[in-house]
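TEACHING EXERCISE
Course module: macromolecular assemblies
Task: Read the component lines below, then compare them to the predicted structure of the full complex.
Student: A.B.
Group: 4
Components provided:
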Amino acid sequence: MAKTHVTMKVNGAEVEGLVEPRTLLVHFLRENLSLTGTHIGCETTHCGACTVDLDGMSVKSCTVFAVQAQGSEVLTIEGIANADGSLSALQEGFRMMHGLQCGFCTPGMIVRAQRLLKENPSPTEEEIRMGISGNICRCTGYQNIVRAIQYAADKINGVEFKEAAE
Amino acid sequence: MIPGPFSYHRPATLADAVKLLSTLGDEARPLAGGHSLVPMLKLRLATPEHLVDLHGIDGLKGILPDGNNIVIGAMTTQHELLASDDIKKSLPILQEAALLIADPQVRYRGTIGGNVANGDPGNDMPALMMTLGASYRLEGPTGRRSIAASEFCQGAYLTPREPGEILTAISIPLPAAGHGYAYEKLKRKVGDYATAAAAVVLTMSGGKVASCAIGLTNLHETPLLAADAAKAVIGTSLDAATLKKAAAAAEAIMSPAADARGPVEYRKHVGGIMVTRALQRAASRAK
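Instructor-supplied answer key:
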């Protein structure tokens, strides 16, 4: 099958590559660009481990073809840290609140949570839970992931993070 | 999992897309949000030689009030429905149902046109469109036509859409001011298809039901309109006996498959409960 030339902006940098039309975006990111932070979990659009931001939308990159991202802006976990390399509020929240155990779901969780907080800077706990309902975690039971996102929201909003009483 | 090889086309106009699809015939599939089709491609349950991506066509997106109707472009995503003030004001049941479809990531990509055109009995929008009396606009090599939502689903994945045709828009008559509505969906988890779901749109007058339509999702090989159940509640105040009668009338037309969501008896039973709850909640919202 003839390959197609694609160009897109990934984490702020112009990138290009030759792909078959059937190449999934996640494979292009991991194999052509060596950005292996985006994980392949279920490969069936359920688990959300492969979540990236595509033109301002959270998408499962196992269910979008690389050719469909032609000319788009893509953000992956590798582009989440602050410009000076320090941890972003969300990364810090996941660290401080122990929002991960094995870490497999974490890149997708953080990229998804970033879009969630852009759309809704002060989400309720319920809104956070619904907001990450497309991302499956098999370790934490979600409690600490929710806390991590609350921590990040408070930090971004400049308010002191107080854990809700159990 | 990697799909079989295919050629990718991204036409910029509807005319080009129709031309491509009619020339390529059965070997081509239109690609909308892709969240039904791409998983099928990865499982190699579908192996089309050509995909015609509809994302490049500007005219297929948008929500336009049109007299007594709202016209929704087929490539409008579930996320865009949820963000629309027009939908919030005139057709809030669409937002209630859209929020129960899949998960946030899928809703950013999944389109209303794909949801209805695919003919999947598990999809939520087809029964809702039947309940609302919507019609679908199709464009093909021989011109345009309009098909009532109630006549579109002829069997599982079986619709009157010809290979060269594209479902371009959905036209929905505005429900009466003060109407009550509810979409009740029982599912095992976020992202699942309905074990059973019911849509209700009704109007009340003097505490009694003046008009009512009831749609059922995933309780038959096609979405259903529960006409007898709707008739049973007209003129009543939805007392317990009437609700029981309506649920029984709805259950009588259900023929769900026995699958991982439960045996037939269970799915019919909870289908009746979805009808009851949707009727009660719709009535409580009616003004």
